[in-house]
Amino acid sequence: MNKTDLINEVAFKMGVPRYQSLKFINTFEAVLADAIRGDNSLMLQGFGTFSPWKQTERVGRNPRAGTTCVIRPRTSVKFKPGKQLLQTLNSAPDK
Questions:
Q1: Is the N or C terminus of the chain more exposed, i.e. has fewer CB atoms within 10 Å?
Q2: Residue in 47, 34, 49, 46 with CA at minimum distance from that of residue 80
Q3: Residues 46-65: what's their mean pLDDT?
Q4: For the chain, what is the HEC assignment?
Q5: Average pLDDT of every residue of the chain
Q6: Residue 51 — very low, low, confident or very high, per pLDDT cuts 50/70/90?
Q7: pLDDT higher than threshold 70 for residue 92
């Protein structure tokens, strides 16, 4: 599922126009990014927790040229699913 599919599905399930669904999704993305940028976690009870983690500087290798280079440190995001989400995923019949 891509962002367009998500917008359409949210609009359908909420019974709202696509533009309102798009506004909701974009606002959620902005709030999530602001929380992560501020070194805060975002916890959605039952769904999961988005938390920032710092990747340290490390040496990498260009696979095409074989040369080494330094990969700068950066902030990434981890997602830990909540119990309700895991229960929902594991109780659904396999396709």
A1: C
A2: 49
A3: 93
A4: CCHHHHHHHHHHHHCCCHHHHHHHHHHHHHHHHHHHHCCCCEEECCCEEEEEEEECCEEEECCCCCCEEEECCEEEEEEEECHHHHHHHHHCCCC
A5: 92
A6: very high
A7: no
